[in-house]
Amino acid sequence: MLRTLGKNAALSEILQALNEDGGVIVVNLVSDDVVDKVSKELRPHYDARGTEHQDDFNGYTTLRLYAVPALSRASLDLIAHPRVLEVAGAVLHHHCDNFQLGSTTAIEIHPGEKNQVLHRDGDIYPIKIPDVEFQISALWALDEFTEENGATRVVPGSHDLRSIDDVTEDDVIQAVMPKGSALFYMGSTIHGGGANKSDAPRNGLINTYSLGWLRQEDNQYLSIPRETADSFPEHVRRLLGYQTHGQCLGTYPGDPD
Q1: 71, 236, 188, 209: which is closest to 139 by C-alpha?
Q2: pLDDT recorded at residue 256
Q3: Superfamily (CATH H level) for 3-240
């Protein structure tokens, strides 16, 4: 099953669902005004280059944008949302001193798009260790997610590292949720974008958070201009990777750490 919890759910309740099912929906974490501002800032970038990443995996009627902090300052309210960081820390801090932002991807699925191939985000790392999560994702609904407009497809329990080849359609559940809600799922959880059978696009923002000693999926230091990163609050800069991990990783002369 894929549980849906209220925005005031206890951290322990969210973690229990994550650990048991590999994913959980927390509804109405932010207001419509917050997500509408993000969508407004992303719109010109979608229109200018949203089709650059279309292929068999990403789809051919889906628009994508990466390095979202460089495109939308309002997105920081989602990327560094206190509840998101709390959940990510609870999952990842078992195996690192600090975690980092792995990637940011804005996805607009247009009518006519087919189901995306099922996959694991954590497969970017060429190793699997039982009971060790390399990353966790927070998928924000910038629009209402419905069965018709391509709500993300999730295979609950698939963080047990079962083969994707063993998954059937009966195992798949769609993450239906209101605008302003978030789907948390483990890097080892099998999922994929849904087919959009409606007459309007469906917008989402996926942010991944990874162990602080791993290579990030996005090169945050090149994809986000330094002057832009410098303008962010300190906790956001640290989340991007502008900090050391432990005593030795990522050191730089004069680093306050």
Answers
A1: 209
A2: 66
A3: q2cbj1_9rhob like domain (2.60.120.620)
